[in-house]
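hiii so my PI (J.) wants the whole complex modelled not just the main chain, which honestly fair. so below is everything: three entries, each one labled with what it is. i double checked the lines twice but i was tired so who knows lol
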Amino acid sequence: MHRFLDLADFSREEITGLIDLANRLERHPEPHALAGRILGLVFFNPSLRTLASFQAGMARLGGTSFVITPGQGTWQLETRLGAVMNGAAAEHVREGLPVLASYCDALGIRAFAEGRDLARDLAETQFGAMAGVIDKPLINLESAMNHPCQSLADWKTLDDLEVPRHGKFVLSWVQHPRALPLAVPAATVHMAAMRGMEVVVLRPEGYSLPPATMDKARAAAAAAGGSVRETADRDDALAGAQVLYAKEWGSTAHYGDAEGDASLRTSLGGWCVTPEWFDRAAAGCKFMHCLPVRRNVAVTDAVLDGPRSIVQREAYNRMTAQMAVLHRMLSHGV
Amino acid sequence: MHRFLDLADFSREEITGLIDLANRLERHPEPHALAGRILGLVFFNPSLRTLASFQAGMARLGGTSFVITPGQGTWQLETRLGAVMNGAAAEHVREGLPVLASYCDALGIRAFAEGRDLARDLAETQFGAMAGVIDKPLINLESAMNHPCQSLADWKTLDDLEVPRHGKFVLSWVQHPRALPLAVPAATVHMAAMRGMEVVVLRPEGYSLPPATMDKARAAAAAAGGSVRETADRDDALAGAQVLYAKEWGSTAHYGDAEGDASLRTSLGGWCVTPEWFDRAAAGCKFMHCLPVRRNVAVTDAVLDGPRSIVQREAYNRMTAQMAVLHRMLSHGV
Amino acid sequence: MHRFLDLADFSREEITGLIDLANRLERHPEPHALAGRILGLVFFNPSLRTLASFQAGMARLGGTSFVITPGQGTWQLETRLGAVMNGAAAEHVREGLPVLASYCDALGIRAFAEGRDLARDLAETQFGAMAGVIDKPLINLESAMNHPCQSLADWKTLDDLEVPRHGKFVLSWVQHPRALPLAVPAATVHMAAMRGMEVVVLRPEGYSLPPATMDKARAAAAAAGGSVRETADRDDALAGAQVLYAKEWGSTAHYGDAEGDASLRTSLGGWCVTPEWFDRAAAGCKFMHCLPVRRNVAVTDAVLDGPRSIVQREAYNRMTAQMAVLHRMLSHGV
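here's the output for the full assembly
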């Protein structure tokens, strides 16, 4: 495997094969599999799980990693092509990233959406420009519209807990103090569709996912025997649900417009998951969230601390799933 | 050993056993003892010695470590129970810390005192709330009222230099531009008492250590054949002293009141250790400080650069003492 | 080798011996040569290449490293002797650096020029004060007037590309939004002279390199059969050049005077390297730069992205050259 940028780049069998490998490495650790291998991690945005789980995962496989945080200990990096660089950024990604790649065996990059122009973010313009100058194995640590490591971890978590392949999976918008990127909701709806689930996106008006995102998920669902639809009706969405996956994101109707988003958001205080949300769900309905999550804004303590919550398992599986990716990417041809 | 949070959790024999182990590892390195083991280090506050000595110590035992710094490369973490998280903190320690713990074999946490409510800090409310959600081995890298790694290193330093077990140990308040936490003075007075020393706390009016802190130290002294008292009389305190341990801390009479503390502090410029402080001390009286120290504010260059100063040995012993803790905690049952 | 602070501390044969070792390690990796060895890296200033290449280089030789960034996760460090430390810095380098050195087998320090007093910077006052308190092997990661790791990497790059030993090497000043330190130009002119090249420093009026810097380079040239001169005439400088090495630096006529430097700089927009600069150069003339570089300010995209540019090779050789230094410094007497 040379690149791990999007679950859609792989067949369903390749993804389940990665999860099988993750399960095997959990049962039979390989503490020397990546001996001598070096992973470079570049964070344009903050991280807790991604940083720690990749460093720990490499270490558990016998490899090492280094971390670069542009703007903090390292200069800011410019991403615009053709820029006249007389501003704050001292170095362009066209120099900086190939240099870092030349020091390591694989590179991971986190670069959130710019959040100004939806078409530009949907096209992964920024991440694509970076990926285009790197000739080493590359891992997407979250880009404008994708988070494949999170999705692989979530898929494995659904399998670990034996959630039925064609079960009902509700991705619900939840409240947040401000607009957040679309990466996780876009990746999640596609992941659940690709797994073959009955996917319902529950969101208030103004927060529809982009048509291109929904189309991509529907194509995955069609191939896997699942379905994808959107609704603003909570009762309808949650009836019989086996999974409630909560996520915050910004209004697509006001993309890049913080004030417009904020004006919509003021009336949406009810979009904080409480135990009552599960009244019509299936008996064992699970609560998922990729973390970080704002307690009592997006979800109440009662749900997060209750037995439905599997957020810790999801987070733990970041490490196990990523170890499979690293193993597939770096253990051959040593 | 599952937790290393407070020297008071261990018997005197357990502590001297740790120091014996530290000495053994100095003489007979074990470069593979912790192979495959991962230590997670979480710093809510700045660090130089703790960060470097734990990373180097793990490496010397064949293990690895990763570092998380909330608010810097990682989001700020909320610690209050029941908080409605609509402020700056994006994640609660109730999620973040168990996640990090799930990636590693032991976790170290540094979280200084909140410095507002003495009773709350004395109860270790904040650190306790974090410790309560972690089921992995845990090390206190400095909490509101404790710094067991520093104390173990200091005890070993006293042994290394053959300071008599029942010798006179003076912990003296020294000047600083502002109020600092009570963690090191509280840990130090207890450590010296537990070692069996004649402990004198020398401090100006308004800077008494809390009664609970003194009581805890006195109980340790009683068990070890030592004593603990407080005074504001420098001549009395330092007469015959074998150790002068300088430390800055905030006024307990004005806890959480920066202005009140500052008004007391203005007249205390004389509390900067000079060579003359040692005039009545024992001939070989040592100068100790946990570092960092502000030269010519807390202590003059002449003392720090002179032969009495053993601050470098203390700092070096952070690594050797912590290696014993890590070895005891992580080398069994591999 | 105990210290790697300045190429001038070594004979020409010792430097070519290091490059031979770097070449050997490229062909025949030694993944266990530095097993158990620990490198401490202290960055008073930002870094991308230095941080990543040292961490990766140590890992490729089986060693480990830790990173300390004063002012970021670690307190600010004071460097002035005799300072009364009642300001922002919580710790003096006289304590902090020996402590860090005691945890590791070698220390690397980056501390840019203070940029106020040229004589003080030329004397390496600040770096010298730090080096003077460290008794472990020490590497200069860029000081006020030197960057020996960059120079060793550049020398190796010239050899890799078979640039003739006595070829014409032009170090040219280029534009930047503000005054930058003299470390790289000073190190580069000395390196090229020591290699035996015909060195021309091309710079506008007001940007002469300091006489002491030129004298040092001329002495190296005399020993190696090369030459060193300065000019402001671009045509003269570049005629027949085999290498154009671009670098930004501050006006020595206005050292420490940002406004004076800025007023000179406004009329120097033409000092941005374009393809036309190579019109009179030798056919295969290479473009070098130590990076980071501001595109379309110091050099145009056309040059950086064109076939003359060997900046990526230079950056890659930071790692290979430094691995030779680390191997020579730390692999003996294990």
